[in-house]
Amino acid sequence: MIFKKPILLLSPFFLCLINYSQAQLLQPKPTFTRADTLRGMLTPLRTCYDINYYHLDVKVDIEQKFISGSNEFRFTATQDFKQLQFDLFANLKIEKVVFHGKNLPYTREANAVFLTFPNTIKRGIKEAFTVYYSGNPRVAKRAPWDGGFVFTQDTEGKPWVATACEGLGASVWWPNKDHLSDEVDSMLISISVPKGLKDVSNGRLRQVTELNNGYTCFDWAVKNPINNYDVEANIGNYVHFNDSFTGEKGKLTLDYWVLPANLDKAKKQFGDNVKPMLTAFEHWFGPYPFYEDGYKLIETPHLGMEHQSGVAYGNHYQNGYLGRDLSGTGWGMKWDFIVVHESGHEWFGNNITDKDVADMWIHEGFTNYSESLFVEQQFGKQAGQEYVHGTRRAIQNDEPIIGPYNVNKEGSGDMYYKGGNLLNMIRTIINNNEKWRDILRGLNKTFYHQTVTTEQIVGYINQQSGLNLTSVFDQYLRYKNIPVLEFCFQNNQLLGRWIADVNGFKMPVKLRVKGGEYQFFDLSTSFTPINLPSATKDNIEVDTFNYYIGVLVD
User: Fold this and answer.
1) pLDDT over 80 at 19, yes or no
2) Rounded to an integer, what distance in angstroms lies between the CA atom of residue 392 and that of residue 475?
3) N or C: which end of the chain has fewer CB within 10 A?
4) How do residues 256-276 score in pLDDT, each as one tens digit?
5) Dihedral sign, CA of 196, 198, 204, 209?
6) How far apart are CA 371 and CA 333, in angstroms?
């Protein structure tokens, strides 16, 4: 997803003064409701079943902004149970829930639905039920950040509709087990739209059926696991063109669905950006994770979203982020931000998905960092480093990047730019480009099509790098403050230590005497002698280009 907060220009040194040299105002802890817990907690009513397959079948009445249809749940029982939870926003009506031809009783609380079966479902048994529902779904006020449906018109006055629901949850428009930890293995998406329009959803178009009621049904088959918020409906007067990319797993189909008025612009913009992006990301992260479902870009009335195998695009066929360079370096104006960033999520967000939205930095930190790797692949390492360094101007240091668990709450928006700078710093510490590339590729291979936790990601990086970087990740992810490197001199001996929130914080840092070569020094929260002959307060230099830290010299 795209970051939305305004940019605040603060230097790391100024931030360290704010964080450590002044008294902190106590900020009230957020309060959460039972509805938040029902949405975010993995209770036995959710863990009792594993979703195997969905068939989502929805008719969209654009004029009335009304949807009606059904979703079939096929699942495997992971334990014996008689009751389970699925999710659907309370403003949508459940017509009935059918199991073996009979209606099942259910109760509703907030946006949760509790379904009771007539007999115990035994562990290991595969079963299915279908939820029939209807209603006026929530209309997004400012998609993609404020989720729901977008109902608008194109420049020719024809209907143009899209869905976007990351964070808010897919249950805003269709019934499902709305928790990131359980991705459905495959699904069929059937969207019926008024005749003359087209729907473009995830996966591959299996069938188009002209119905007798003035609607056309588009069936899209998704063969790979997919998280709920990625499931999309995009409805409009679309035209289609295609291409292919020869990648690490062979031929990858490239399909583009755009408005007719933008066809020529789309051919040029997508032609300039997509294949270089795929080349760069396959180099750094490994094969595109969804060859079976193909790669699509779909023009949408909102800015963009990482919908799996069907990336939503609304950047108006221009380079940068709506024509702006978020890094302020100039490098961000040489490529289309939405094509690169949202496609980067195919690896981090869609292939590797966090189990809890509190760990959303796994999606956004790595994908923000992917932008600098794309720049590096295109223009050289120095350009990539300049780009990621430039994005620091958007860091707020307002609250921890990792949010509270089990309540469907993200942490700070710093998960983007601070997350990207953290990863660049980890690469600097590892100090081996090939090993770093192997780690990034290894993450996508080891956790292929899986949901993960922060501990798993950090543990893998520790194991593969041979370094214990846990305290580094903890400081940057679990606290809002950045660490401060403090120097002092005693008897002409340079000493250094870290000031940090994490007990036992340690991090190697690159130092030099002005004009010399950088050297690594292992420092902790205790003052340690630093062997830099001729160092003075005036000539000691810290690699703050690659390290996002504060510096104090006593």
Assistant:
1) no
2) 17
3) C
4) 999 999 999 999 999 999 999
5) negative
6) 12
Q: Which long-range contacts (CB under 8 A, 24 or more apart) does 194-197 make?
A: 194/62, 194/159, 196/237, 197/62, 197/158, 197/159, 197/235, 197/236, 197/237
**CA 67, 70, 75 angle in degrees (round to 5)?**
145
Contact 549/530 with Cβ under 8 angstroms? no
Q: Which long-range contacts (CB under 8 A, 24 or more apart) does 445-448 make?
A: 445/286, 447/351, 447/352, 448/289, 448/351
What pLDDT does residue 3 have?
55
Q: What is the DSSP string of 243-281?
A: EEEEETTEEEEEEEEE-GGGHHHHHHHHHHHHHHHHHHH
The CA-CA-CA angle for residues 502, 3, 477, to 5°, reads: 10
Angle at alpha carbon of residue 403, lines to 89 and 184, rounded to 5°: 50
CB 69 within 8 A of CB 58: yes
Q: How many CB atoms lie within 10 A of CB 378?
A: 17
Q: Which two tokens stand for residue 111?
A: 């946006």
Tell me the backbone φ, ψ of residue 348, rounded to 5 degrees: -115, 100
φ, ψ (nearest 5 deg) of residue 16? -65, -35
Residue 90 tokens read as 């309370």
- Which tens digits make up the pLDDT trace of 81-114? 999 999 999 999 999 999 999 999 999 999 999 9
Query: Poorest-confidence range of 2-16, 406-420, 496-510?
Result: 2-16
Q: Which token pair is 59?
A: 């008719």
279-319 pLDDT per residue, tens: 999 999 999 999 999 999 999 999 999 999 999 999 999 99
Residue 30 DSSP symbol: P
Tokens 């993200």 correspond to what residue? 410
According to DSSP, the residues that pair with 76 across neighbouring strands are 50, 126
- List all residues 6 or more positions away from 403 whose beta carbon is below 8 Å from its beta carbon: 357, 358, 360, 409, 410, 411, 412
Residues 6+ apart with CB under 8 A from 23: none
**DSSP-derived 3-state class of residue 401:** coil
Q: Residues with Cβ < 8 Å from 459, sequence gap 6 or more?
A: none
Phi–psi pair at 311, nearest 5 degrees: -65, 125
**Amino acid identity for residue 317 in this structure:** Y
d(CA 441, CA 445): 6
Residue 201 makes CB contacts below 8 A (sequence gap 6+) with 189, 191, 218, 220, 231, 232, 233, 234, 310
Report the C-alpha gap between 426 and 382 in whole angstroms: 17
| Residue matched to tokens 């193909």 | 294
Distance CA 436, CA 442 (A): 10
